[in-house]
Amino acid sequence: MKAAVLVDVGRIEVRDIATPRPGPSEVLVRVTAVGLCGTDLHIFAGHANYNRDERGRPISLAREPQILGHEIAAVVEETGATVRDLRPGDRVVIDQGRSCVSEGRSPACEYCASGDSHQCERYGEHGITGLPGGLAEYVAIPGVNAVRIDGALDPALAALTEPLGCVVHASDVLLRTPARYVIQGGRGGNGRQVGHVLICGAGPAGLLWVQYLRNVLGYDGVLLVSEPSAAKRALAERFGAETIDPTVADLVDVVLARTCGRRVELLVEATGSGQMFASIAPLVRKQATVLLYGHGHVGVDLSVLSQLQFLEPALLSPVGASGGHEADGRPSTYVRALRLIERGSVAVAPMITHRYRSLDAVPGAFTGDHAAPDYIKGVVTL
Predict the structure, then answer these.
(1) DSSP state for residue 228 in the 8-state scheme
(2) Distance, CA of 109 to CA of 114 (rounded, Å)
(3) Residue 184: which CATH number?
(4) C-alpha distances in Å from residue 30, one per residue of 92, 141, 158
(5) Who's near 214: CB < 8 A, 6+ residues apart?
(6) CB neighbours of 372 closer than 8 A, spacing ≥ 6?
(7) Which of 5, 229, 292, 322 is most buried, judging by how many CB atoms fall within 10 Å of its CB?
(8) Strand residues in 113-214 grouped as ranges (E)
(9) 38 and 91 inside one domain
């Protein structure tokens, strides 16, 4: 089969490699669409390496080249001997995480047993931690990791189940964490509701957060989005946010004006920018909730944390889309996220600005297009 293989930092080669064979509880799927994520770009550029040995040391690409791609829609090609609820031809989205539940380990580790499978003691992720990802013609995954798509949903849209699932999981963490100010349905607050939210960044994550807050959680308060890109600001406004161009207006001044000097009770940092992280303190109320959603924050002097510490915020850092499981072992967050896309509760089509029709187009997608002014989300379709 063909696969786009990351052979060195900044270099992807399309190669012919062996087609994997599914184990007894696995399915072989033919990939139909793969979303390109910021995490893929970080790994490609050498800013991150999540393929680690048992002591947590990074494994070089020279030793183990990687196949990226973890936002996967596919069609079942072959089922293992013990898989009873899927058949060839089924259209599915893939939970890329391997945990005690997906591997059938018993007893499950304490994290899987509590519904936090993304923190499984033996966790691995296709396309992230060295396991082969979706930028290939085929991938073999546990059968319970395949969630069936209802109807005729475009595979490119279905592939965005994973990033929406990350927002679903993060929202669940937000709602169950006691805090001084709460979103409707959250714990704590003693009647103090979040009335002002700031989302930093209107990339795919920020845009999904806008829609989830408005359309799923029913948040009807002030919702501000800081984003320098005009195209992304326009989409954030379409989804129900007020936007700020931080290259033109002073972000702190605007936040103070829109909150009558009180600042925001909830800040979602969705850029991964070190500069943005260092600027959080003057934007939030005392004992606000700060949700660190973006990754990277390169170049941050951690002394900026002292400014936050004096404000006593609730700092949350949820990651991933995996979590609890349905009765049949399938990942609940993926099921919920896929149904939101299928029902149109969260619109993902407007976010897809770049489509790539073959694996041969993948190297160019990583080296140039993502920096284009109109780029929001790229999807490879096969």
Answers:
(1) S
(2) 9
(3) 3.40.50.720
(4) 10, 11, 14
(5) 220, 223, 239, 240
(6) 354
(7) 322
(8) 124-125, 138-142, 146-148, 196-200
(9) yes
Which pLDDT tens digits describe the chain residue by residue (382 residues)? Answer: 999 999 999 999 999 999 999 999 999 999 999 999 999 999 999 999 999 999 999 999 999 999 999 999 999 999 999 999 999 999 999 999 999 999 999 999 999 999 898 899 999 999 999 999 999 999 999 999 999 999 899 999 999 999 999 999 999 999 999 999 999 766 666 668 999 999 999 999 999 999 999 999 999 999 999 999 999 999 999 999 999 999 999 999 999 999 999 999 999 999 988 788 888 999 999 999 999 998 876 677 777 778 888 899 999 999 998 778 998 989 999 999 999 999 999 999 999 999 999 999 999 999 988 888 899 999 999 9
Residue 363 falls inside a structural domain: yes
Q: How many helices (H) and strands (E) does the chain have?
A: 12, 17
Buried b or exposed e, range 155-190, using 16+ CB within 10 angstroms:
bbbbbbbbbbbbbbbbbbebeebebbbbbeebeebe
CA distance linking residue 71 with residue 135, whole number of Å: 10
Q: Residue 368 contacts by C-beta under 8 Å, 6 or more apart in sequence?
A: none
Displacement of CA 232 from its chain's centroid (Å): 18
Whether 140 is in a domain gets the answer yes
| Residue appearing with tokens 């004006």 | 257
Q: Tokens 């899927």, residue?
A: 86
* 90 found inside a domain: yes
334 Cα distance to chain centroid: 11
Closest CA relative to residue 100, chosen from 118, 86, 120, 85? 120
- In a shared domain, residues 106 and 203: no
Long-range contacts of 113-120 (CB under 8 A, 24+ apart): 115/323, 115/324, 115/325, 116/323, 117/322, 117/323, 117/324, 117/325, 117/331, 118/169, 118/319, 118/320, 118/321, 118/322, 118/323
In the numeric block, which tokens belong to residue 268? 């979602």
**Domain tally for the chain?**
2
Angle between helices 161-176 and 204-211 (to 10 degrees): 60
Report residue 307: phi and psi, to 5°. Answer: -65, -40
Q: Which residue type sits at 322? A: S
| Residue 318 token pair | 């949820």
